[in-house]
Design goal:
The complex is a heterodimer of chains A (197) and B (210). Chain A is built from six helices and no strands. By secondary structure, chain A is mostly helical. In chain A, α1 packs antiparallel against α3, α2 packs antiparallel against α3 and α3 packs antiparallel against α6. The radius of gyration of chain A is 33 Å and the shape is rod-shaped. Chain B is an all-alpha fold. The longest helix of chain B is centred in the middle third of the chain and has 68 residues. The chains are: A mainly alpha (197), B mainly alpha (210). At the A-B interface, α1, α2, α3 and α4 of A face α1 and α4 of B.
Chain lengths: 197, 210
């Protein structure tokens, strides 16, 4: 400004820019550290989700196992080849259920990590942009608004569903067959006196 | 053709104008520097607000949401306790003691399982709620940063306006222009101002001439 290199304005601008760069470096480090410490929280989330889902699978397995045992007994198939087949299907469905629950848990963890990463980037954008550009701050604000709607435990909503679908149909058929047999046997008992008469 | 007076007048005019302009530029510089310092103050406020948010984020955990969530689950379970007992087969009139014991055992198992599931659900739901809370905080931060930016832009505009309002002292400029004009006119017309002025003074009889 004054031609002699002693401009107060450029000195102030230089000082401000140096300060700003230092602030950006410090903020970036602090943000990275804040999100870097989330491992334990994320691990607790995925462990809980895994336990919840596998607990559901185990509960379904108990119910299905009980129905299988009684269904086979009603049909007189205990110890037979159908019992072996049914047991194998039940075991396969159980392992598939476990795998599905693990998949859902991993998906939930991935969603949570993605949300954290998006949040980290938004905050970095806000810290780095600072007073530099209004449009970037506005964009970050809009992104946050859209994020609010998406913040949910997607994994849990999906769940594992009905794991023992195939064997459930089998049990139902066995139970219905047993009921039919029982009905026939009873009708014979009641029908006999009249037929003789 | 050395005319010391003309040269002196030109030099004086040039010096006066240069000093005048230099002082104006210094005032502009001071205004702009003050504006930048003001922007710096606002920038520091903004950085402080960002730091506050980062600090809040670093300390953020899902414990509050977890506690709130589990309380909600427990309340729901407790308010439906009668129906749970009924579902487990309790409350049958005239049933044996053994049956009542079995129902009680089943109910305690159901209660323990429900509490365990409620704890798991609260641990699953809490991180999502925590992130929603944090997203609200970031939205507020973005709004605050926009506010700081508006203030900074205003400070910048005012500083530029104040700098542009700084003008040279017109009297000095006019005086310098007059001096310069007279000297230039003298030189252009071939008039030696030193001689002319010397003659004039000599004619007046003062000092006995130069």
């Amino acid at each position: 400004m004054c031609g002699g290199g002693d401009s107060k304005a450029s000195d102030a601008a230089q000082a401000r820019e140096d300060e700003r760069q230092a602030e950006i470096t410090r903020s970036t480090g602090a943000i990275d550290a804040a999100f870097g410490n989330r491992g334990a929280q994320q691990q607790e989330f995925v462990n809980s989700l895994r336990e919840f889902l596998t607990g559901d699978v185990r509960r379904q397995q108990k119910v299905a196992g009980r129905r299988s045992k009684f269904g086979l007994a009603r049909s007189g198939l205990t110890g037979g080849s159908q019992a072996v087949d049914q047991g194998r299907t039940l075991a396969e469905e159980f392992t598939e259920g476990l795998l599905k629950s693990e998949r859902v848990a991993q998906g939930g963890l991935a969603d949570l990590k993605a949300q954290d990463e998006q949040s980290r980037l938004q905050l970095l954008g806000l810290a780095q942009t600072g007073l530099k550009s209004g449009t970037a701050a506005a964009r970050a604000s809009e992104a946050i608004q859209s994020n609010l709607a998406g913040a949910s435990a997607a994994g849990l909503q999906e769940g594992v569903g009905d794991v023992f679908g195939k064997t459930a149909n089998l049990f139902r058929a066995q139970e219905e067959a047993a009921a039919r047999r029982k009905g026939l046997a009873e009708s014979e008992i009641f029908a006999d006196p009249f037929s003789r008469g | 053709m050395c005319d010391p007076i003309s040269l002196g007048m030109l030099a004086t005019a040039l010096t006066a104008k240069t000093v005048n302009t230099r002082q104006t530029n210094r005032r502009k510089d001071r205004e702009l520097a003050a504006g930048i310092r003001k922007q710096g103050d606002i920038g520091r406020e903004s950085a402080g607000r960002v730091s506050e948010e980062i600090q809040s984020l670093a300390e953020s955990n899902p414990e509050a949401e977890k506690a709130e969530s589990i309380q909600g689950f427990i309340n729901t379970l407790q308010s439906n306790k009668d129906l749970t007992t009924e579902a487990a087969g309790g409350g049958v009139f005239g049933a044996s003691d053994r049956f009542a014991e079995d129902v009680s055992g089943a109910l305690s198992g159901v209660g323990a399982r429900a509490t365990g599931r409620a704890e798991l659900l609260s641990k699953i739901d809490a991180p999502a709620r925590q992130r929603t809370r944090e997203a609200v905080g970031r939205g507020q931060l973005a709004a605050d940063v926009r506010g700081f930016q508006d203030r900074s832009q205003s400070a910048d505009f005012l500083a530029r306006l104040k700098a542009s309002e700084q003008r040279n002292n017109p009297l000095i400029d006019i005086g310098a222009d007059l001096l310069s004009g007279v000297a230039t006119a003298g030189v252009a017309s071939g008039t030696n101002l030193t001689t002319v002025l010397g003659d004039k003074i000599a004619n007046l009889g003062f000092l006995g001439g130069i």
